Amino acid sequence: MKFFAQPLQIGPLRIRNRVILAPLAGVSDIPFRRICRELGAGLTYVEMLSAIAIRHRNKRTRDMMARHPDEDVLGVQVSGPTPELVEEAVAFVDQRSFDTIDLNMGCPVRKVVASGSGSALLKDPDRLTETVRRGRAATDRPFSVKFRLGFTRDSVNVEDTAERVVREGVDMFTVHGRARDENYAAPVDLERIRIGICRGRETADGPLVAVGNGDVVDFQSALRMREATECDAVMISRGALGNPWIFREILEERTAHPTLEEWGDVVSRHLSWQEEHYRDESLAAILSRKHLLWYIKGFPRNRELGAKLAGIESIGEAHTILREYAAQWPRDLRRFEGPLSGESRFGPSSKYDPKYEMDRTHDRGVGALE
Ligand SMILES: Cc1cc2nc3c(=O)[nH]c(=O)nc-3n(C[C@H](O)[C@H](O)[C@H](O)COP(=O)(O)O)c2cc1C
User: Fold this and answer.
1) How many Å lie between the centroid of ligand 1 and the Cα of residue 248?
2) Is the CB of 226 inside a 6 Å radius of any atom of ligand 1?
3) What per-residue confidence (pLDDT) applies to 300?
4) Please, which pLDDT band fits residue 184 given cuts at 50, 70 and 90?
5) What pTM, to 2 d.p., does this model score?
6) Looking at the structure, do residues 142 and 237 belong to the same domain, yes or no?
7) In this structure, what are the phi and psi dihedrals at residue 224, rounded to the nearest 5 degrees?
8) 48 in helix, strand or coil?
9) 299 and 164: one domain?
10) 3 state SS of 220
11) Pairing state of beta strands 143-150 and 209-213?
12) Would you place residue 355 in the very low, low, confident or very high pLDDT band (cuts 50, 70, 90)?
């Protein structure tokens, strides 16, 4: 059986394959997760939840915990500034319908770090250990952590972090191969991921799942991640934005962009699910704009199309605009393969840096508490 298509055991949880959709703040809502799941994602996560927002029973955070009946497996990720808050948050989400719980130790967002959460933990190994210990003890579900190589490029401590979290009994860890101070244009450091995974395996006295993350944008890059790091699974982030077909490509070991018809079906379904999920027509349209701009990458005349889609006020309007443009495209057109499209945003050298968007998303999410 093809490597990534093999099932994966995470503690007591068995998932159907080894291609995971990352928790993506502002992106991994129910409609997007369903699309990725339909196209093969073995595990998906809700958007990162702040332990502070959980304590305050923040409404948006409550909404983010919803699970669709089609989601047969679902993970949650929490972040928190103190071991106590993380313990409380893990105990809280443990009572909800999640199959696995992850602790974020990699988020670079300004306010998250200033509060002592996310990648700030990488600067304080004792607090990191205590936080993982308390989180681990608060649930019997599979418990995992996601971290970066270090807080800065000059203070890479991936081996120490891997050893510490494994000693505390995590079932899985994910290494994002960049330091917090590196922007997303810097290529991911596969060798350092490998070193971290190696140390984790040496430390473990039971089963451990190690996941590689960063710059996986197609089957070739997934294979490179697997071969260079010996990871058990890959976690996809930017590579899935506008390209949920990436899961199918990796599972089937081929890189082929969808036909125009398949592309249209998936985009329409995503839009319909946005409408169904958010109920409010205008909100659904606003939240669909960024997805649409990602979906049209690699098509001819997409600048003009993008300008139209960026202003949609309803999902119906988006359907009309897309139909109008697609009608002018040759039926055998494929993204990134047409003569007019030399551009690719999915390449590993992608300049797309989500940090500012993540800052904004986060500010919206916890704004009510400040
Ligand atoms: C829009 C966006 C939101 C993200 N939100 C989260 C998050 O909530 N939790 C998390 O652990 N990582 C988050 N990340 C980081 C990714 O999971 C991943 O570690 C990073 O993008 C590197 O992988 P990539 O090169 O495949 O994109 C986010 C990334 C993006 C682009």
Assistant:
1) 20
2) no
3) 82
4) confident
5) 0.93
6) yes
7) -60, -45
8) coil
9) no
10) helix
11) unpaired
12) low
Q: Which of 29, 220, 231, 238 to mutate to test the pocket of ligand 1 (most atoms within 8 A of CB)?
A: 238
Ligand 1, residues 20, 47, 237, 290: which to mutate, most atoms within 8 A of Cβ?
237
Does residue 362 belong to any structural domain of this protein? no
Shortest-distance atom of ligand 1 to CA 146: 11
Tell me: the pLDDT tens digits for 164-179?
999 999 999 999 999 9
**Domain extent for 156:** 3-256
Residues 325-339: what's their mean pLDDT? 81
Whether 170 and 151 map to the same domain: the answer is yes
CA pair distance 338, 220, nearest whole angstrom: 21
Residue 357 lies in a domain: no
CA of 197 to the centre of ligand 1 (A): 19
d(CA 117, CA 84): 12
Closest CA to 154 of 179, 175, 184, 187: 179
Task: Say if residue 194 is in the same domain as residue 272.
Answer: no
CA distances from 215 to 68, 169, 185, 353 (A): 29, 28, 10, 12
Does the residue 285 lie in any domain?
A: yes
Instruction: Answer yes or no: is 359 within a domain.
Output: no
Catalytic site includes residue 231: no
The CA 108 to ligand 1 mean position distance, Å, reads: 10
Tell me which of 199, 232, 256 is where a domain ends. 256
Q: Given this model, what pLDDT does residue 20 score?
A: 98
Q: Same domain, yes or no, for 239 and 266?
A: no
Compute the distance from residue 330 Cα to the ligand 1 centre, in Å. 35
Confidence (pLDDT) at 250: 98
- Here the CATH number for the domain that contains residue 172 is 3.20.20.70
